[in-house]
């Protein structure tokens, strides 16, 4: 495997240690922070970005907290990020984030099923190798023609 150069400035100084500890690839958490930093930086230019949101369905939790979230309707496998508005014939955009060295087998069975279900319902839904790749896909989606309202 070739070494990769990572511009850590987009991850912020608080994440430099996590990036170093994770080896040559940032952790998913750092990637998602970087993705939302890019979203926030472009909101003035692209106001619809203010409607992009994260789905709080991952991460380590205590059994009590996991039970409480499940009771509140949180479901396993729902993609990490959503932009709920239609563009270019799609009903909405969903992104599942994996590390830059991610492979399809990194998707859980539930995640793969949700992506399939969302596509079957007309959404653009996919998994992305890192925050920059996910942001690029979202920008491509936002460039599609808006649906008539």
> What is the name of the CATH architecture?
3-Layer(aba) Sandwich
Measured on Cα atoms, how large is the radius of gyration?
Answer: 16 Å
The total of helices stands at 5
Count of β-strands: 4
Spans with pLDDT under 50 lasting ≥5 residues? 1-22
Structural class: alpha+beta
- CATH level 1 class label: Alpha Beta
Percent of residues in beta strands: 5-15%
Q: Please state the average pLDDT score.
A: 83
Q: What's the structural domain tally?
A: 1
Reported by name, the CATH topology is: Trna Endonuclease, Chain: A, domain 1
Q: How much helical structure, as a percent, in the residues? A: 25-40%
What is the terminal-to-terminal distance?
48 Å
Largest sheet: 4 strands, mixed
Tell the overall outline: globular
Write the layout of secondary structure elements.
Elements: H1 16-21, H2 28-42, E1 53-54, H3 63-71, E2 81-83, E3 93-98, H4 109-120, E4 124-129, H5 131-142
Parallel strand pairs: 3-4
Antiparallel strand pairs: 1-2, 2-3
Helix pairs in contact: 2-5
